[in-house]
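Issue: ligand-bound run for zinc ion - logging full I/O for the record.

Environment: standard queue, default settings, no custom constraints.

Inputs:
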Amino acid sequence: MAFDYSGRLERLKDLMGDRGVDVVLLSAGADLSYFTGYEAMASERLTVLVVTIDGEPVLLVPELEAPRLEVGPFEVVAWGETDDPVEIATRQRRFPERVAVGDHMWSAFTIAFQKNWTEAIWVPASTLTRELRMRKDRIEIEELRRAARGVDLVMGRIQDEVRFSGRTERDVARDLSAMTVEVGHDTAEFTIVASGPNGASPHHTPGDRVIERGDIVVCDFGGRWEGYYSDSTRTFCVGEPSVGEAEVHGLVQEANQAGRETVRPGVPCSEIDRAARSVIEAAGYGEYFIHRTGHGIGLEVHEHPYIVKGNDMPLEIGMTFSIEPGVYIPDRFGVRIEDIVACSERGPDTLNAADRSMVRVD
Ligand code: ZN
Ligand code: ZN
Ligand code: ZN
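Outputs:
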């Protein structure tokens, strides 16, 4: 998919002008891919995009990486094994007053840059880059929709194709990752299978626990599809749930829906969190909802905007984020239901569509 990298770089320069930033330094990571399409490997050999307020952007890469670079709206400088890349990069601008350094820049490089530009004020580049990356264009939303449909397909196949009882969480997780790739993702990036009491730990690592009949199982997984992430959660029951378990599941489903229905341009992020959380609080389970309601998603699985109390930034058209309320009851079980939603002019555009009810599995 071809993105408008020169447009993105122009908008970055406009922002630099507004914020008085002379230089932006971006090393391997999502910011670099966003502006260049280049997926660099983070290593002790520095890769850095140097964007100066008045010059052509320069992408400095180790010489051995240069052959895999594609032409873009930036000059490529390949540095050799005996060169000093930091020195070459700092030559692009004499005495910058304010430098924005990428969140993924290794501190060893940042410290080296700071030794060369001793007078500069340093700010995190994400204060600029998130302004652009948060507002997805149509193509990006379609990329995210395709990835979301991929995990939906996997969710839909679980009931018929995946056996839970008598198998370990690790084995089930392996099936889900394999299916994630099978449906078209380039990679499966994370897979949480949290059964029975393990479900009370939101980021549980699938382990050796053997899943039993009657267990509630939280399955949260996703991968990357041409750079864009999927991330979805459904909660399954091995056999029949108890009345209490079904009640909690219904509550979380209602909270998920309340959160999604609140999405529209102009509504503060905190308001989405409040809408979902108040459903759970009203039923007396507030203390068991122990995380924010959601996170932005795009080239990274967690990025701005964060759907959390205190973030009063109003939603805008093109923002994409998860809505994933949960209830986690220690030593018993957990429930989470997670969808990716895009804020559209008409309100919520939910990218995931898999059955949100508690599907029974064997
Ligand atoms: Zn999470
Ligand atoms: Zn998730
Ligand atoms: Zn998530």
